[in-house]
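Posting this for the archive.
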Amino acid sequence: MSRVLIVDDDPAIRDVVRIALSRDGFETAEAPDGAAALLRFASMQPDLIVLDVMLPEMDGTDVCRALRRHSTVPILFLSSRDAEVDRVVGLEIGGDDYLTKPFSPRELVARVRALLRRAGQMTVHTTGHTTAHPTGQPRAERRAEPLVHGRLRLDTETLRVTWDGQDVALTATELGVLRTLMARPGRVFSRDELMDRAYATERVVSDRTIDSHIRRVRAKFARLGAAPIETLPAFGYRLAACD
């Protein structure tokens, strides 16, 4: 059972989110403000956080920045503001998705499930398990092959990303972008294609949204002296040489 931390200063909103997630089988916990959220996170270690942007004293963006110093837990922002700049800022600082109020509880659950699938929290791994062979003899299921491109490696089961053996911590959406590019090395993906393949839900988001995720991925690899994503002006992005 996946654990979700709900952070909102409005008890009514927390109730709506809690009921929707509980009905879908999630374990939930709540926090009314940013400071309480950080304490609850430390004790609960949730698999995902539903995080309101506008919180008293310590707002959601500050909570996100604090968490991103040591965690890649998926974060779904909630906000009453629908301006593009607000969505982009939320994604730039490390959020994985952004949902505006009022929202459909069904859509919220769908986005939570999509983010968890991408983060690997709802994937049943088969390593070490057995299945029946046609002869009646059990046989071990095959482990999914990792994606490897030069010094860049993505383990498709554990979702561990490394560059030359060094770990690179990516959020769920950043991982979706990189996995899409690595699955078809050499292919140029337009922004629309990346949004369709790497984003949590099927909906319209702006070019700036996917660009924000690309910038964050590049910044994380740049710390290791790597540049695995190439821009082709007017066309889109592709996986660069990683030798």
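Residues 3-119 form a domain with the Rossmann fold fold (CATH 3.40.50.2300). Residues 122-141 have pLDDT under 50 and may be disordered.
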